[in-house]
Fold this protein.
Amino acid sequence: MQDELSERQSTILKLIVQEYIRTGRAIGSKSLLERFRLGVSPATVRNEMGELEDQQFLVHPHTSAGRVPTDRGYRYYVEYLLEDARLPVTEQITIRHQFGQVEMQIETWVRLAATIAADLSGNMALVTPPRGRIERLRHFELISLRDHIVLLIVVTQAGTVREVILPQTEPIAQQELSGISQRLNPELANLTSPQVLERANGTTGLAAAIMRQVADAIRPGQQEVQSELVSEGLDRVLQQPEMSQSAMAHRLLELLRGGMILSELLPQLEFDDDVQVIIGTENRSRDLQPFGVVVASYGTTQEITGVLGIVGPTRMPYGRSISAVRFLSRLLSELLRDVYHQEADSTA
């Protein structure tokens, strides 16, 4: 596709995309020449814009003499014309400071990342907490609720908390339960469900029964079918000119309800180390085709992964959105790796 446009056509397309993102208004040759010194006549610019329209990089709205980018035009811009998208160092330092000021809890990090991504992009940010493809135990607690009832609280390395009620035939004192927790936690920390079950098979009595319950609680089949979705910036995206169309706003609200937007997005995501950009009709879901999506996964290796993305009209600031998603996803991955290393060091 890169060879299809001349240098002048590429320059004009780049300027039109940037101006349309900035203003939300169709761009004509006159307004382009008023803002930029292109060194050519208005007639030349009009001819080049006509060529870009013939090649379906631009479209001519009926209500305007100017042109606006098509999905194909945005794709060319993102692939070939967008400069290296990185957040300024000052912003990176500020964001790291913000994360350093909050509690070291995954839920807090996820919500902060969503807020920052929405602020940086001016659109809606979506973040899912990290979930384990392979769940591992962080720790568990045993609490005596009544003489014959024990509450088992299991926390996974991904931060998931699960509670299990364990009825007992004989009363058990809290002191005994605390002793079991203190003895078994160092032994079981960071193990998977099969590994915990293997340890249980070599043990007898109450400890074996508790270990089997722990193994069952972190078993992959017990994981949530759909991750919790944190969203921020809905008000920002609804203020965009395109969203004045009630049908488009209604579609976005319906997608958000019940986390439907996640089920629409996940099948087309590629979980690698870089940012993925899906523009308009490139979305497999028809409900998402009015929108642009910039998304990346984050996590520790391939075991614990979450998703961080930005959703807005196709007329979104792609450079800003890509740089925000790239930096925040890498920062979240870095924070999670630090947590894992600390856990590993504490059990070594």
Q: What stands out?
A: The radius of gyration is 26 Å.
